[in-house]
TrEMBL record:
Keywords: Aminotransferase, Pyridoxal phosphate, Transferase. The keyword Transferase applies. Its cofactor is pyridoxal 5'-phosphate. Residues 27-389 form the Aminotransferase class I/classII large domain. This is Aromatic amino acid aminotransferase.
Length: 395
């Protein structure tokens, strides 16, 4: 049965983690997978999460099943973090999922059932898993122009030109904040313009927000999404606790549906639950139990918000320090755009060959599409990385 299978292509992000681990060089820097590191180069368990682990260990009385939708208090917390204060709270429904990729797949499967002809429009470029997941769900995928390689910013005009072609059978997938891979976000007026197009032409917005809190702050990062939610009839949202709770391996995320009515949202949730049953039955509990514990306790919530804001601040400092190093030590303003990007990532504008040179000659691991993870830098790496970036840019 398996002898006909071709050798599969390596995952462009996850394969880097393995290659980095196996690289024997002392001088190596992992800027591949989107994981936050502190100044010691560690990815620590957040203090609020660590305290929640003790509470859960001491108070949890059973490991019996939770349910197809996962933990409902967790689901409500995810809705609150994203949509509190909007007008849609009476027509929204959510299920807990194994990470945001699990949420993407569940919503992909839901679209395939609800509207089999759906085409999902994704940004060019986009998160490397968007296209594979949507295609695995049997949906067509189309790209809209997004990023200008020249300015390293969003080309809003071209983006809107393309999205003007999306209609009733289309779903437009947007990054809620901290665009992956570019780090270039749309501004609030672009959110307004896309919303206007959605209302006029009838496409459904789908917002993937996996980095809430890493851009401009927890509430600010949801502003565009909230504006849109208030105007449109239907919307899909995927969210993740991998980054903002540091729960990567616990696979903790949610799929959220805003329906035209409370009944429509509940029916979508029911369908999501039957789809989950046929896929993994129910999501792993531990991460959601920790998030619930943090968010139901005022002191832990305050601590978590403070830690998240420290992480966000550290990312800003790393961006500034890298830019200063490039400007002052190498006399180049070519990479000033790095400072204007948001969240963990930035694309350098390097070709796959240049990214290969960074990896092979300098032991600096970034993704082949030119993405580097700023959150993977430590202060002591910056001079070495800046030097390598300048040298490789001159090839
Ligand atoms: C990333 O983009 O590096 C992360 O979201 C990890 C992943 O699942 O690809």
């Amino acid at each position: 049965m398996f002898s006909q299978l071709p050798t599969p292509a390596l995952d462009p992000i996850l394969s880097l983690t393995v290659a980095f681990r196996n690289d024997p060089r002392r001088e190596k820097v992992d800027l591949g997978i989107g994981v936050y590191k502190n100044s010691q180069g560690e990815t620590p368990i957040m203090r609020a999460v660590s305290q929640a682990q003790h509470i859960v260990a001491d108070t949890q009385k059973t490991k019996s099943y939770v349910g197809l939708a996962g933990c409902e208090e967790f689901n409500q917390s995810m809705v609150d973090l994203l949509l509190k204060g909007t007008s849609v709270l009476d027509r929204v429904a959510a299920i807990q999922t194994p990470g945001a990729s699990g949420a993407l797949r569940m919503l992909g499967d839901l679209m395939k059932v609800a509207q089999p002809d759906t085409t999902v429009w994704i940004s060019n470029p986009s998160y490397v898993n968007h296209k594979p997941v949507m295609e695995a769900a049997g949906l067509k995928v189309k790209y809209y122009r997004y990023f200008s390689p020249l300015t390293k910013q969003v080309d809003t005009e071209l983006m809107l030109q393309d999205l003007a072609g999306a209609g009733v059978n289309d779903v437009v997938l947007l990054h809620g904040c901290c665009h992956n891979p570019t780090g270039a976000d749309i501004d609030f007026s672009a959110w307004q313009a896309i919303t206007e197009l959605a209302v006029k032409n009838g496409f459904t917005p789908f917002v993937d927000i996996a980095y809430q809190g890493f851009g401009d702050g927890l509430e600010e990062d949801a502003k565009g999404l909230q504006y849109m939610a208030n105007q449109v009839e239907e919307m899909l949202i995927t969210t993740s606790c991998s980054k903002n709770f540091g729960l990567y391996r616990e696979r903790t995320g949610a799929a959220i549906v805003i329906g035209q009515s409370a009944l429509a949202a509940q029916n979508a949730k029911g369908k999501l639950m039957t789809l989950a049953r046929a896929t993994y039955t129910m999501p792993p509990d531990h991460g959601a139990a920790l998030v619930k514990t943090v968010l139901q306790d005022q002191a832990l919530t305050t601590l978590w918000k403070q830690e998240l804001s420290e992480m966000q601040q550290r990312l800003l400092n790393l961006r500034q320090t890298l830019c200063n190093e490039l400007r002052n030590q190498h006399n180049t303003s070519q990479f000033d755009f790095i400072e204007s990007h948001k969240g963990m990532f930035t694309v350098l504008g390097f070709s796959p060959e240049q990214m290969g040179t960074l990896r092979e000659e300098y032991g600096i691991y970034g993704v082949g599409d030119g993405r580097i993870n700023i959150a993977g830098l430590t202060e002591k790496d910056i001079p070495y990385v800046a030097d390598a970036i300048v040298k490789v840019s001159q090839r």
